[in-house]
Structure formats: structure tokens, C-alpha cells
Write a structure and sequence with these properties.
CATH topology of the largest domain: Uridine Diphospho-n-acetylenolpyruvylglucosamine Reductase, domain 3
Distance between the termini: 54 Å
Order of helices and strands: EHEHEEEHHHHHHEEHEEEEEHHH
Radius of gyration: 19 Å
Length: 286
């Protein structure tokens, strides 16, 4: 394997200029845990240049404002786990962090890398928490909902640097406060420290009457892209707990989830797992 040259920019402006000038011969890197795995497996080419953003202090900061949480893209997963505001603002995301890799890997891996890969296990949890991504385009920062970025043409962001993520704090008043629901489930090929086959995240509120007007559900896993299960959400919003059919919920979740067959599991098996996980979490609420 060819050893790439490591470049260490002083700030985001210099990093962006390096990426612009070097183009496809370069890649942004911080922890690099997933990239190294891909290079060793031969599933990704080793670039000539690594633009190391890990030394930029501004990309590692975590701030809690009145209405949102801001996390630097180079914050390590273990750093995020030690932040009490993350557990308060985004419990499903906090549960996802605990399930990713071994503790030693979490000391190196960053939240930005998990997101930028497009297949990170944290993505379904971040989706249900209405996460927004903040990018730097060489001149200024701009914000984009995570859900929009996942569906976008990634070539539009070829030189842009992911610098932070923003997660809104959930509402705490009125009908929303009747009951908060958060869940994250991951199914892998062994019990712990394993890549996922499927992941499911749920976040929202249940009203006193047993309805789900604000429930969000997302699924992902493996190399399948994470996405909100909007049809499942609509079904839950249209029915109270007393009216809900778990069998119908299972069938809808399995049908809506998009995945593929790989060396470890068929697409049909993964779809069934998603249907089972969604139905099981709603059954726990019931």
C-alpha cells in the first residue's frame, strides 16, 4: 500500500484550499478509523495526500446553546459519550454512540467521519433528532439538513469541509411533554464491536391519548443508506395505540426499508429485521 503524504492545515480556509488544489488526489481525514479499514480491505483507493483536520481545535468543540447542541466534526465518539448534554438532547444518538466499535476505536473515531462515510451507524439516530450539518465552502459556513445531504449528489460537496453538526433540543412544554420516546437498536453479525446489518432509531413524543403526532423513525445499516421511514411515521400519526395493528406496522416497515443482499444477509432478511425492530419498540410502548 502506497503511503500518502500527510498535510496539516492551520485552519479551515487552508484545508479547503489544499482540497481544491489537490482534488481527487486528496481526502480530508481526522480519526481515519473507517478509511484505514477500507484501504486494508481494498474497497477504497489510498489517496496521495491526507488533509489532517484533527489538530484544529475549533472542530473539536461541543457547545450547548438555549435551543440546540453544536458538535464539532472532529470530536471523538468517546468525547461525545462524556458530554451530558448529548444524552439530554439526543438520547437515541447517545445510544448509537455506545454501540459503535470498541472503546479504543471510539477514542480515535470522529462523529464527522461517521457521517461523511454515508454509512455510519450513527446516521439513523441523527436523522430522528433532526440533525443539521454545517459545511465550510472556502468562504463561509452553510447549513443543510442531514436528510437533504443524504439524498444529494455528493459531488456538490467535493471540496467542502464538514465542520460541525447541530441538534435541536426537544420541546419540553404543552402536549409534547406527555411522554418522550427514544430508542436505538443495532443488529450485527456478533454480539459486540461489529459492523451493523441493520440499525433502527426512534425519537419523539406520545400524547396522553396514546397518539404519536411527533414520532420520527429511521433505519440504515451496513452499506445501505439511512433514511426516515415516512410511511411508518404517517401510519403511527394516523392511529392511536388502541387502533394500531402491529402486524400491519411490521409489514409497512419491512416494505419501506430499502437495502440489498450482501455476503452476510439477504435483502429480504434485513427487511424483516427492520420490520421486527420497529414493531418490537412500539410493542414496548403499548
Amino acid at each position: 500500500m502506497q503511503l500518502p503524504a500527510v498535510l496539516q492545515p492551520r485552519d479551515m480556509h487552508e484545508a479547503w484550499r489544499m482540497k481544491r488544489d489537490l482534488g481527487e488526489q486528496s481526502i480530508y481525514i481526522s480519526g481515519g478509523t473507517l478509511l484505514r479499514t477500507q484501504w486494508e480491505a481494498g474497497t477504497a483507493a489510498v489517496p496521495k495526500y491526507l488533509i489532517d483536520t484533527g489538530s484544529m481545535t475549533e472542530l473539536k468543540m461541543i457547545f450547548a446553546a438555549a435551543d440546540e447542541l453544536e458538535i464539532g466534526a472532529s470530536a471523538h465518539l468517546s468525547q461525545c459519550l462524556r458530554e451530558p448534554f448529548i444524552q439530554q438532547a439526543a438520547p437515541a444518538f447517545y445510544q448509537a454512540l455506545r454501540s459503535i466499535a470498541a472503546p479504543s476505536i471510539r477514542n480515535l473515531a470522529t462523529i464527522g467521519g461517521n457521517i461523511a462515510s454515508g454509512i455510519g451507524d450513527a446516521l439513523p439516530a441523527l436523522l430522528v433528532h433532526d440533525t443539521r450539518l454545517v459545511w465550510f465552502d472556502g468562504r463561509q459556513e452553510f447549513e443543510l439538513p442531514l436528510s437533504d445531504w443524504l439524498k444529494a449528489d455528493k459531488s456538490r460537496f467535493a471540496n467542502d469541509l464538514l465542520c460541525k453538526i447541530r441538534i435541536p433540543f426537544p420541546g419540553q412544554s404543552g402536549e409534547e411533554a406527555r411522554g418522550r420516546i427514544n430508542a436505538y437498536q443495532k443488529v450485527g453479525r456478533r454480539e459486540a464491536f461489529t459492523p451493523s446489518l441493520v440499525t433502527v432509531a426512534i425519537s419523539g413524543f406520545i400524547h396522553r391519548q396514546g397518539s404519536f403526532p411527533l414520532l420520527r423513525i429511521a433505519a440504515g445499516g451496513g452499506n445501505a443508506g439511512a433514511k426516515r421511514l415516512s410511511s411508518v411515521e404517517a401510519m403511527l400519526q394516523a392511529h392511536s395505540l388502541q387502533e394500531l395493528s402491529l402486524a400491519s406496522l411490521y409489514e409497512l416497515a419491512a416494505a419501506e426499508y430499502e437495502t440489498y443482499t450482501d455476503a452476510f444477509a439477504t435483502a429480504a432478511y434485513k427487511k424483516k429485521m427492520v420490520g421486527n425492530l420497529v414493531a418490537a419498540e412500539i410493542w414496548k410502548i403499548m
